[in-house]
Structures are given as C-alpha cells and as structure tokens.
Amino acid sequence: MEPPLEAEWWAMGLRVAGVDEAGRGAWAGPVVAAAVILPGPGPYPFADSKALSPAQREALEVLARRTALAFGIGWAEAAEVDQLGILEATHRAALRALAQLHPKPHALLTDYLHLKAWRDYAEAPSYFRSPPKADQRSPSVAAASILAKVARDRYMQALELRYPGYGFDRNKGYGTPEHRAALRRLGPCPEHRRSFAPLRRA
Questions:
Q1: Model pTM greater than 0.70?
Q2: N or C terminus: which one in the chain shows less Cβ crowding within 10 Å?
Q3: Fold of the 7-153 domain
Q4: What letter does residue 27 receive in the DSSP assignment?
Q5: Where are the chain's structural domains?
Q6: Which residue numbers in the chain have pLDDT < 70?
C-alpha cells in the first residue's frame, strides 16, 4: 500500500490541511468546501465520500470532527455560482473553509483544485499540492470530502421543506430524471443555478 500523500510532510512535523468540495456539478444549492487538519500520521478510516454510504458518511463525519486538530466549512451560494462561475465560487468556498483553521496549516492538499491566494491562509514553511484523486490517497482530503458532503446533504434535505417537489432530499440538487421532470413542471426556484445550461433551457 502506498503511503498517504501527507506522509513526507508529516515526517517533517508540518501541519497539513486537506481540502475538498461537494456540489460542484449540481443544478441547485450551494457549493460547499471543507478543510481539515489531522493530528499527524494515522491510520485513519476516512475514504472518498462518494465511495461511502450515507450511514458511513454520517459516522465518519462525527469522527472527523472529533479527530481533527482543526476544521472549517465554507459555502458559496447558488447566486454566487451564477455571478462568479462555478470554479471561482468553488475557490471562494475553499478559502472560506481555510480561513476558519486555527492553527493555520503549513501545507495544503486539494483534490485537483488549483487554489489561488492559498498562501494567505498558511504559515511558513508553506507547501501546496493538488493531484487528481487526492480524496483516494490522502486521509486529510478524504475527511474534508466527508465533512463537505454531509454538510451539503443536510442543507439540501432542509431545502426540500422550503421548496417541495424537486426531490432535493433525494437528488441533492443534481440533474436526475426526477429533478428534470420537476423543473418542467414547477420551473426553477431561488436555489437553482440559473447560469447552468439545463436551467437556462428551463
């Protein structure tokens, strides 16, 4: 088994933050990012949130909060996505999550997110890597993916009560056939990302 992506930095005694997001491709709701600093080498049971069941994510979310040296969760609402574009909104959500970390990290890992201005949220010596599939190779990024996914899922479940009929509690704002049919029937709600092509057509 390969060592985690953090291994070299942990061996140097550095605080490492993992960052990941949830909801980037959804048609509705916010994009949510989380940042997590774990207290050094594990082992840890965290895994890519997409590979976990809802019950597993809920249990590991509690463990991540208890285990982390620090964590933060940042949000960019649907209106921000429309105004800035999804990539810039994702960056803002990630930086908002990083701004909550106390102490600050010395090193940062993201899941292929080339963050701008990340040094403003780190202490020297500062290192940065953004390899693909980091949520499968880094427990810090995996823990962040779980926190972001669970926070967003809870938001979308509550959103179904405010805007019933879209199935937000089931589809979490993604473009399922149920969601597409609801858009044809109901039209978009204030939480829809109107800059996305399916919403422009709706």
A1: yes
A2: N
A3: Nucleotidyltransferase; domain 5 (3.30.420)
A4: S
A5: 7-153
A6: 1, 202
